[in-house]
Write a structure and sequence with these properties.
79% of the residues lie in helices and 0% in strands. With 425 residues, the protein is mainly alpha-helical. The chain has a single domain (11-419), classed as MFS general substrate transporter like domains (Growth Hormone, Chain: A, Up-down Bundle). α6 (139-168) crosses α13 and α11 (305-319) packs antiparallel against α15 (397-413). The longest helix is centred in the C-terminal third of the chain and has 33 residues, at 271-303. The protein is globular, with a radius of gyration of 21 Å. The two termini are 21 Å apart.
C-alpha cells in the first residue's frame, strides 16, 4: 500500500492520530524544557549541561524499560496508553507550577523523569500495536508513516512552541513563558488521552489467548526472554544494535549542533537566536527524516531489507564527514539533513524487520529490549560528546569518531556473512 492509501485506512489512522498528537505535544513540551534548561539567558549552556539534560530525559526510559514489556504483554495496550497520557498531563501541570515558582532543582527533575518515563510506555505500546492495525505486506510503509510522521510532528510541535513563546515573551519573563507552554502541553496530553480512549480495548493487543500471566517482578526475567528470542534471530539483533549505534551518534551530533548554535554561530547572550538556529537545524533534519522514510520501501523492494540497512548506515558515515571539513551553518544543515535521511531509513526498515520476526506474544518484550538498547546508546553518545566537545561545540574530533563508528557498523556488524540470511538480501 502507498503512504496515501495507508492514511486513508481508517483503522490505522485511529492509531496514528494518537501517536502523532502525542508527539506534537512532545515537541511543544521539549521546546519549553530546552528553553528553560539550555537556552535561558540566566543559565550557561555547556556540553556537560546538555549531556546531563539528555541523560535526565532518557534515564526513565531505561529504568521502566524492563517493565514496559511486562505491562504491554499482560494488559490492554489501549488502557495503558490512555492512563499514561492522563499521567503525563497531570505531571506537566505540576512541572508548570514549579517553573512559575522558580524551582530548578531536584523537584522539577523528578517530575520530568516521570513525564518521560510514561512516554516510553506509550510509544512502545503504539509500535507493538502497528502489526494489528495493518497488513503484513504494509509493515515497512506503516512504520515509515508512523515513525517518520511522528518525528515531523515533534519538530512541528517544537516550532509551534517557539512561535507561541515569542508571542507571550513580551508579557512574561522567560521562565514564566516556558511554564505557560508546559501548561498548554498538559492540555494537549489530556486531548491525546481522549483520542486513545476512542480505540477499542483489545484493538492493539494483546488478544485474550496472548495475555501473559504472572507478576511484575518478572520484568527483568522477561527482558531476558526478549534477549533470548533475539538470539534466535541474529539479523534482527544486529539490526537493533546498528540502529542503537546510529542513534547514539546522532545524539552526539545533536549536542554539537546545540552548542554551535548557542555559543558559536550566535552571541551566547542572545539565547533566542540560538534556539531559533537549532530549531531550523531540526526542521531540516525532519525533512531528511521524511525523505528517508519515503525512499526506504523503494530501496527495500529493489535490494532487500538487509542490504538497505547496511547501505543506509554506510551513507550516514560519509555524511558525518561534512563537519570534519569545517563547522559552518551550511555544513551543519547539510549534515542534519543527510544523517537524518540515512538514519530514518535504517530505523523504519529495521522496525519492520523486527516486527516481521516476532509473534505478538513476544512483541512487547522484544520492543522493551529494543528501547533499552537504543536509549543506552543515546545516553552513551551524549556522555561521549560531553567528554569530547568544547563549550563552543567547534570540534572536528566528534564528527570523525561518529563517522568511524558508523563505518565499522556497516563493514563489521552488518557484514553480509553474519547479517544477511541465506537467500535473503
Amino acid at each position: 500500500m502507498t503512504i496515501w492509501q495507508l492514511l486513508k485506512d481508517a483503522k490505522l489512522f485511529r492509531l496514528l492520530r494518537v501517536r502523532w498528537s502525542g508527539q506534537f505535544i512532545d515537541g511543544l513540551f521539549q521546546s519549553a524544557l530546552a528553553s528553560f534548561v539550555l537556552f535561558s539567558p540566566e543559565r550557561q549552556a555547556s556540553a556537560i549541561n546538555a549531556a546531563v539534560a539528555f541523560a535526565v530525559v532518557l534515564l526513565p526510559y531505561s529504568i521502566v524499560g524492563p517493565f514496559v514489556g511486562t505491562v504491554l504483554d499482560r494488559f490492554s495496550r489501549q488502557r495503558a496508553i490512555f492512563f499514561a497520557n492522563l499521567t503525563r498531563s497531570i505531571t506537566l501541570v505540576v512541572i508548570a507550577f514549579l517553573m512559575f515558582n522558580n524551582y530548578t532543582g531536584l523537584e522539577i527533575t523528578v517530575f520530568v523523569l516521570i513525564a518521560f518515563g510514561v512516554n516510553r510506555l506509550i510509544l512502545a505500546g503504539l509500535s507493538a500495536g502497528i502489526p494489528l492495525m495493518t497488513q503484513p505486506q504494509s509493515l515497512i510503509s506503516a512504520n515509515a508513516l508512523a515513525v517518520t510522521g511522528g518525528s515531523v510532528w515533534v519538530v512541528l510541535g517544537g516550532g509551534f512552541g517557539l512561535g507561541i513563546r515569542r508571542v507571550i515573551d513580551s508579557s512574561a519573563s522567560a521562565d514564566h513563558s516556558d511554564a505557560l507552554l508546559v501548561l498548554l502541553a498538559a492540555v494537549g496530553y489530556a486531548i491525546t488521552a481522549i483520542l486513545a480512549g476512542l480505540l477499542k480495548r483489545k484493538e492493539i493487543g494483546p488478544l485474550d489467548h496472548e495475555i501473559v500471566k504472572g507478576s511484575f517482578s518478572q520484568g527483568f526475567r522477561e527482558m531476558r526472554d526478549g534477549f533470548k528470542f533475539l538470539e534466535e534471530h541474529a539479523d534482527a539483533a544486529r539490526g537493533i544494535t546498528a540502529t542503537a549505534i546510529h542513534r547514539g551518534g546522532l545524539t552526539a551530533l545533536t549536542l554539537t549542533a546545540l552548542l554551535l548554535e548557542r555559543n558559536t554561530f550566535h552571541n551566547p547572550s542572545d539565547s533566542e537566536a540560538g534556539l531559533a538556529g537549532l530549531s531550523l537545524d531540526l526542521s531540516i533534519a525532519a525533512v531528511g527524516f521524511v525523505i528517508g522514510a519515503l525512499i526506504a520501501p523503494f530501496g527495500v523492494a529493489r535490494i532487500g531489507r538487509h542490504r538497505w540497512i547496511r547501505l543506509s548506515i554506510a551513507a550516514a558515515s560519509l555524511s558525518s564527514l561534512l563537519l570534519v571539513i569545517d563547522r559552518t551553518p551550511v555544513l551543519l544543515a547539510a549534515t542534519a539533513f543527510f544523517t537524518a535521511l540515512c538514519g530514518q531509513s535504517v530505523k523504519v526498515t529495521n522496525d519492520a524487520l523486527v516486527q516481521s520476526k516476532i509473534e505478538d506474544l513476544y512483541r512487547g518484550r522484544v520492543f522493551a529490549v529494543y528501547d533499552v538498547v537504543v536509549n543506552a546508546a543515546i545516553v552513551s553518545g551524549a556522555l561521549i560528546a560531553a567528554w569530547v566537545l568544547p563549550t563552543s561545540g567547534d570540534s572536528w574530533v566528534l564528527p570523525l569518531l561518529t563517522s568511524i563508528a558508523w563505518a565499522l557498523v556497516a563493514t563489521i556488524l552488518l557484514r553480509p556473512k553474519k547479517f544477511f540470511l541465506k537467500g535473503v538480501a
